[in-house]
Amino acid sequence: MMGSRARHGRLPIRFPFPVMPLSSKAWSAAPSYGEVFYARATGQAPEMESSKAAAKKLRGIVVPQARILDVGCGSGHYLRSLRREFPFPFFYEGSDITPEYIALGKKAYANDPLVRFTVASVEELPYEPKSFDVVMCCNILLHLPSVTNALRELWRVTRSTLLVRTQIGNSTFRIKQVPEPDVMNGKEDPLFGADGEPKTCHYYNIYSERYIRWFLGSMPDVEDVLIERDMDYDPRALGAGAWPEDAKPDDLTEVMGGWQVHKYILQPWSFLRVTRTIAS
Ligand SMILES: C[S@@+](CC[C@H](N)C(=O)[O-])C[C@H]1O[C@@H](n2cnc3c(N)ncnc32)[C@H](O)[C@@H]1O
Questions:
Q1: Measured in angstroms, how far is the CA atom of residue 72 from the centroid of ligand 1?
Q2: Nearest C-alpha neighbor of 140 from the set 71, 45, 56, 219
Q3: How far is the CA of 60 from the centre of ligand 1 (A)?
Q4: Crossing angle of helices 49-57/78-85, nearest 10°?
Q5: Among the atoms of ligand 1, which is closest to the Cα of residue 137?
Q6: Whole-prediction pTM
Q7: Could you tell me which of 269, 249, 242 has the C-alpha nearest to residue 258?
Q8: How many angstroms is it from 74 CA to the middle of ligand 1?
Q9: CATH superfamily of 4-234+269-276
Q10: Tens digit of pLDDT for each residue in 46-101?
Q11: Atom 10, ligand 1: which residue's CA is nearest?
C-alpha cells in the first residue's frame, strides 16, 4: 500500500537513518522506502529526476542486446526510464543489499524475461569480471564509508562504461548526519561516544574531482573519465513548494540558486562516466 505522500510522486518519505556502517538491516528499517521504489517501478509514481537524467546520460551507449547492471537498484525503478529511453531489447540486472527491495523488484517485473534481480553488496558483486556492458550506480556511494572499495568493484565488472551519480565537488568532505532521539533526558550521551564520534550516523560524503580522477588513474584500462554536474532536473519535482503544507516531508531536498540543498548541505550532485579502453 502506498502512503499519501507516495501518491504525490515526489520525494515522499523521511530518509532512513542507517547505523554505521550502512547495512542491509538499516535500509530495511524503512519499509516505506521500498513502497516508493515499487510505485515508481510499476508506474504508479512518476520517474525520479535522477533516473531520467541517468537514462539520458546513457544515450548512444546502451545498444540493442546490451547487458546493463544497476547496483543499489532499490526495486529496479530506474529500468522504467531505461525502457522509455531505449525501446529495444536489452538485459537488465538489478542488485541491492536490501532483500526487501529486491523482492519488490522481482514482483514489479515478474513477467519480464530480460530482467533479473540479485541481493548483493556493491563491495562484493557476485559477477565475473567485465560481465556487463554498462554498469550504473546512482545515489549510493555518498552513503558508504569507502568510495574506493565500491568504485574498484564496479569497475571490475564493467566491460565498457560505468555511470555513477554521487556528490563530487572541488573539495572533499566527510559528512555524517547524526540522528537524534525524540527525547534527550538520560545521563548517557545520546549522540556521541567517549571518543567524540557519533554512535550512529548517515554519511553524505562529497569527494573532490581531483581525488576521484587520482583514484581512477590507478584503475586498469581506463580510457576516459567524464565528470559533469547534474543540473538536469525539474526543481518543481523536488522543491518544497510542490508539497501541500500538511504533507511536506521534513527531510525534503529543496532547490536554492539552482543547487539541490538537503537540510544545510548544498549537494554537488554529479555524474561520473568512466570508459574502458576499447581494445582491452
Ligand atoms: C538512496 S537509495 C538509491 C536507490 C536508487 N539507486 C535511486 O537512486 O533511487 C540507496 C540504495 O542503496 C542500497 N545500498 C546501500 N548500501 C549498499 C551496499 N553496500 N551495496 C549495495 N546496495 C546498497 C540501499 O538498499 C538502497 O536501495
A1: 4
A2: 71
A3: 26
A4: 40
A5: 6
A6: 0.88
A7: 269
A8: 6
A9: Vaccinia Virus protein VP39 (3.40.50.150)
A10: 898 899 999 999 999 999 999 999 999 999 999 999 999 999 999 999 999 999 99
A11: 140
